[in-house]
């Protein structure tokens, strides 16, 4: 199922490239953009360049991100190359600004979908995910920063007008990625319950997070309660609520945004 989602995401990215960005010479982000640039100024095949440039990063991803995400990345790189080959390069609009905006947004949707389902589109995505896990910095922001080199190369090789359009496209792609791929967002959950011990045991077996427990009592009923506090990712909240409701239908759950985590926090 995940591989199917990765393939669909690759199709979306290829559509954004061939119908919006490539017709105007706007480079894509990351390794694909570098491969396209080299392919345009040399006789080397872009598909082969993409594979060669991705190979060391795939090896890094295997050791740092695991086997599953690396396999999904291989599926993505292969399917993206295939879709780029079979889809014609056709400009949907004659307006370069519209192409830049929609190319960046649609490309971001494709990459965001791939990242959300435990894959990457290869290249700098792998580095961005690794850094995000150790720094609490969003993947989209990291990709935007690293892709600055693509913008500079575009300006020197082609024109600075194209470089600025490339920058706009990359920025929009990064913002859309952060909207879809939200695992870097941290939330604090406070659970007020009379079934604290049962919930604690179930949570520790199902969710790899630390739990801080304090004692309290109801201000009106004066009934003794336990308050469980956890810092989690957005993806984990649904599972935690299911566990809590299984033991205590009347439990009070308070969820609020966490600005920063300073201390031990598992990022896998």
Short description:
Helices cover 62% and strands 11% of the residues. With 268 residues, the chain is an alpha+beta fold.
Description:
There is one protein chain. By secondary structure, the chain is of the alpha+beta class. The protein has 2 domains: about 1-180, no CATH class; about 185-255, 2-Layer Sandwich (Alpha-Beta Plaits), CATH 3.30.70. Helices cover about 60% and strands about 10% of the residues. The protein is built from 11 helices and 4 strands. It has helices at about 1-20, 30-40, 45-65, 65-85, 95-115, 125-135, 140-145, 150-155, 160-180, 195-205, 235-245; strands spanning about 185-195, 210-215, 225-235, 250-255. It has a 4-stranded antiparallel beta sheet, covered by helices on one side. A hairpin with a 6-residue loop joins β2 (about 210-215) and β3 (about 225-235). α3 runs antiparallel to α4. The protein is elongated, with a radius of gyration of 22 Å.
């Amino acid at each position: 199922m995940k591989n199917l989602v990765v393939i669909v995401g690759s199709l979306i990215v290829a559509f954004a490239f061939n119908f919006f960005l490539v017709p105007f010479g706007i480079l894509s982000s990351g390794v694909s953009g570098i491969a396209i640039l080299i392919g345009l100024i040399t006789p080397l095949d872009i598909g082969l360049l993409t594979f060669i440039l991705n190979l060391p990063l795939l090896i890094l991803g295997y050791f740092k991100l695991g086997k599953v995400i690396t396999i999904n990345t291989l599926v993505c790189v292969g399917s993206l190359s295939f879709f780029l080959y079979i889809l014609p390069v056709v400009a949907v609009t004659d307006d370069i600004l519209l192409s830049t905006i929609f190319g960046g947004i649609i490309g971001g949707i494709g990459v965001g979908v791939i990242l959300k389902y435990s894959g990457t589109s290869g290249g700098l995505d792998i580095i961005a995910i690794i850094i995000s896990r150790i720094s609490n910095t969003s993947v989209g922001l990291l990709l935007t920063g690293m892709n600055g080199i693509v913008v500079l190369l575009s300006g020197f090789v082609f024109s600075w007008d194209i470089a600025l359009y490339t920058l706009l496209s990359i920025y929009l792609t990064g913002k859309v990625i952060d909207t879809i791929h939200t695992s870097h967002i941290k939330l604090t959950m406070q659970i007020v319950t009379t079934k604290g011990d049962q919930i604690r045991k179930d949570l520790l077996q199902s969710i790899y997070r630390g739990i801080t427990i304090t004692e309290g009592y109801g201000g009106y009923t004066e009934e003794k309660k336990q308050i469980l506090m956890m810092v989690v990712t957005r993806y984990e909240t649904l599972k935690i609520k299911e566990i809590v409701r299984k033991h205590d239908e009347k439990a009070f759950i308070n969820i609020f945004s966490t600005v920063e985590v300073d201390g031990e926090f598992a990022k896998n």
